[in-house]
Amino acid sequence: MDKQKQIVMSGIRPTGYLHLGNYFGALRNYVKMQEVYPCFFMVADLHSLTTHPDTSFLKENVHRVLAEHIACGLNPDLVALYCQSHVPETAELYLYLNMLAYKGELEKTVTFKDKARLHSENVNAGLLTYPVLQTADIILHRASLVPVGKDQEQHLEMARNFVQRFNHRYGQVFPEPQAFNFGNELVKVPSLDGTGKMSKSENNLATLYLADCDDTIRKKVMKAKTDAGPTAPNTPRPDYIENLFLLMQLVSDSATIQLFEEAYRSCTIRYGDMKKQLAEDMIRFMAPIRDKASQLQKDKSYLEKIMKQGAEKAGASAAATMEIVRNAMGLNYY
Ligand code: TRP
Fold it and tell me: Residue 49 phi/psi, 5° resolution?
């Protein structure tokens, strides 16, 4: 298919605060893609119900995540930015796809097994069929390019299987979705304690959230694990130190980075100074996004306008696809 005609689709669940990993792993790429492809970006509120049945914070979270998408540079006039539950065709397509998804393959899904362990009191059918709903989100717009992290690879593989089964049974309707990161390697944003990545729900002190205030950013960065420093020239950097350099590469200028690399090589590095510098550069980078998001979040009439506009665009695309789907499936009786 013509590259220009391929469609981009992705979603983020409103289950917590967006963090620097979401920014560098997803949102920053979305912003580049919006200039090149037709894009659908969605707040996956229905998916959040599979693990978060308590909806008391849902509205606030949906508003914040939407505001953060825009604050990061997404242009709602250029893309369809919408809430999953505002597009009811999603549920219809999910139902059809459920007939093509086998219990055995769903039970084998790594994310299902992980979440079932974590929420053993609530292993519901929605959790089991999570990848089916995700497939519906994507193919509802006949999208084939899906910017997601490594943890979603298996879901996309399942999406391709469901698409193949649908197309085989009912005719060539859907393209096969694939992970997409717009050329460059995905940036992993390490957590501040040297263990794994930044995360929405775990590890609060080691994760920098887009909503963190300056003092919180400072406090978290200053708490990052370090040691007494290298004692011999050209010692390899331990993971937790390497992470500080990685973070610096995301937000500091090259002269600053060079300065600390040189200090490390010559064993004169003072990690306190490095963290102070990193904290200030981080604040310079993050504060405008935070302030913009918080301003947008207060403007309820603006958010409402954005959501309606997004639902209209996504709804039009969904309606067109479902017309084709019902015809292909023989669900057209007059
Ligand atoms: N499962 C995705 C995640 O946890 C969120 C998601 C829901 C999604 N629907 C999607 C991602 C459609 C890409 C496309 O990150």
Answer: -70, -20
Give the chain's domains with CATH numbers: 3-187+300-329 (3.40.50.620), 212-293 (1.10.240.10)
On whether the CB atoms of residues 97 and 132 are closer than 8 A, the answer is yes
Interval between CA 287 and ligand 1 midpoint (Å): 27
pLDDT tens by residue, 76-114: 999 999 999 999 999 999 999 999 999 999 999 999 999
Query: Contact, 51 vs 127, CB < 8 A?
Result: yes
User: 32, 115, 219, 298: which one is catalytic?
Assistant: 115
Which of 5, 103, 108, 197 is an active site residue?
Answer: 197
Higher pLDDT, 172 or 234: 172
pTM: 0.93
The amino acid sitting at 231 is: T
* Token pair for 191: 């957590």
Q: Classify 102 as helix, strand or coil.
A: coil
Report the separation in Å between the CA atom of 42 and the middle of ligand 1, taken as the mean of its atom positions.
9
Mean pLDDT, residues 266-285: 97
Are 317 and 89 in contact by the 8 Å Cβ rule? The answer is: no
Q: What is the predicted pLDDT for the residue at 3? A: 52
Region 312-329 average pLDDT? 98
Query: What letters, b where the CB count within 10 A reaches 16 and e where it falls short, cover 205-216?
Result: ebbbbbbbeeee
| Whether residue 197 lies in the annotated active site | yes
